[in-house]
Description:
Elements: H1 2-7, H2 9-60, H3 67-85, H4 88-120, H5 125-173
Amino acid sequence: MVFIDTVLPWLGDLLAMGGNILALILIMAMLIWSLLCERIYYLYFLYPEQLRSAVRLWEAREDKVSWYALQYREHLRHRINADLNRSFGLISTIIKICPLLGLLGTVAGMLEVFDALAATGTNNPRSMAAGVSKATVSTLAGMVVAIFGLLGSRFTENRAVAERSALPARLAYLGVEDA
């Protein structure tokens, strides 16, 4: 926390205002964006080389018409498809969890409001402000992380779907006839 207070003091204030649920939402956001950055890096830098490598492996084969050769070609195609699809299920699950965590923060904040009401016996706005703040901040954070995560996920997933659908044509263009 000392690091956060010295380098990013606004983040420390936000975490203090939002509570533990907000910290969990921020961890989820970092996880989503690290997975999305990995997918983008794969799609733009590693995938083209993997595709060229698969074509080189296929072209190095002498036998290209036997059942075993066709099974090998399908293995190459399935391996590339599996790599194109990797992590999207996890990203989608985390995105779906973020609004629920925001809702959990809302409930926790409202419980603090009710505790303040029970302790003071009146509806003193000052005693309720901390709970309402926690409820609002965690809800906002959960929704913002989910919305931007969904946008990033759709971008990368659409790119992966486009690459997956173009894979047979690219393999055919580079010397691998399509099955």
